[in-house]
From TrEMBL:
It comes from Tunturiibacter lichenicola. One of its GO terms (molecular function) is hydrolase activity, hydrolyzing O-glycosyl compounds. The keyword S-adenosyl-L-methionine does not apply. Residues 1-23 form the signal peptide. GO terms for biological process: carbohydrate metabolic process. Gene3D superfamilies: Glycosyl hydrolase domain, family 43. Keywords: Glycosidase, Hydrolase, Signal. InterPro entries: Glyco_hydro_43, Glyco_hydro_beta-prop_sf. This is Glycosyl hydrolase family 43.
Length: 325
């Protein structure tokens, strides 16, 4: 076979590759659930309940009722195999937000005192001018979430949201706020139904905010404001959620625009041997949102330095915490 023919064969094989490499998580591949359907959990977050991870995100499937907005939930014990649980939120415009209204970046918290699961999401009109969070609650993690209300946290504009739960169990919302040009890290009220105290205004016009606590340092990560287009995501650190935060640095070579992805969540896996931190990001396809892909990759992180390695298939042992690629 000529070299050209061999190259063509290889390109075809790569194009035909259906999804995740078996036994590994493959960044950018189509990721199928237990039904063989493409996972719809964009702009997502993870809540761990006992030994199960629940992945919530925007369901952008084709053929859904155009008047409704959907949040889907999937469950997994190993982060690789995901079982579809339900469209846990199927909502008609709850407050006359108007045509093109939206729900983005849902995140679920569990409140041990009230025993309620509380879903936060960015809710907005079609022009992104409303800039609020919406809240829905449920008695079960994958149950039907009931819409409660929307508001501007601390009276501030809020668009992309992220979630952070500290080691002491305290829950925080991260939200991008204009015109202050920064994103806010704010503590939730005891029942999680409000946002009550600003911890930090991280002084950078960033969105897709996420936080992780690792070896005594808080790492905050975010993307620049370029709509659906990727850009070089950045990080900063602090010893306290109240700052001060270091200068922001790129998490990957800037020309590669975070390997065509945008930050969503930092997931910490504490195992018996080590702790791994996983960067969860979206590779958006704005004209075919249903086919947007996920870039999940273990980070190289230590001593105030954070690096997103070049994406490639990887595995994790949930018990030991060891990630390999
Ligand atoms: C970037 C945000 O991170 C996404 O969640 C979405 O709101 C797009 N902007 C819309 O342009």
């Amino acid at each position: 076979m000529s070299r050209l023919a061999a190259c063509c064969c290889l390109a075809w094989l790569l194009l035909l590759r259906p999804g995740n490499v078996s036994g590994a998580i493959t960044p950018g591949a189509v990721w199928f659930d237990n039904r063989g359907q493409q996972i719809q959990a964009h702009g997502g977050g993870i809540l761990k309940v006992d030994d199960t991870f629940f992945w919530f995100g925007e369901d952008r499937s084709q053929g859904l009722d155009p008047n409704k907005r959907y949040v889907s939930c999937y469950a997994s014990k190993d982060l690789e195999h995901w079982t579809f649980r339900d469209q846990v939120l199927k909502l008609s415009d709850p407050e006359n937000f108007g045509p093109g209204w939206l729900i983005e970046r849902p995140k679920v918290f569990y409140n041990a005192a009230t025993k309620k699961y509380v879903l936060y999401a960015h809710v907005d009109d079609g022009t992104y001018k409303l800039a609020r969070v919406g809240i829905a609650i449920s008695d079960t993690v994958d149950g039907n979430y009931r819409y409660l209300k929307s508001f501007r946290p601390l009276g501030l504009e809020s668009r992309d949201i992220g979630q952070f739960i500290d080691d002491d169990g305290t829950a925080y919302l991260i939200f991008e706020s204009r015109p202050t040009k920064g994103f806010v890290i704010a503590r939730l009220s005891p029942d999680y139904l409000n946002v009550e105290k600003q911890m930090s205004l991280v002084p950078a016009p960033l969105e897709g905010g996420a936080v992780v606590h690792y070896k005594g340092l808080y790492y905050v990560i975010g993307s620049h404001l370029t709509g659906w287009s990727p850009n070089p995501n950045v990080y900063a650190t602090a010893t306290s959620l109240e700052g001060p935060w270091t200068e922001f640095k790129n998490i990957a070579p800037p020309a590669l625009k975070t390997y065509n992805s945008q930050s969503s969540t930092l997931l910490r896996i504490i195992g018996t041997k080590t702790t791994s931190v996983i960067f969860m990001a979206d590779q958006w396809k704005p004209k075919e949102l249903w086919d947007s892909r996920y870039l999940w990759m273990p980070l190289q992180i230590d001593g105030g330095q954070l690096l997103l390695p070049e994406p490639r298939p990887w595995t994790i042992d949930i018990n030991t915490g060891e990630a390999k690629y």
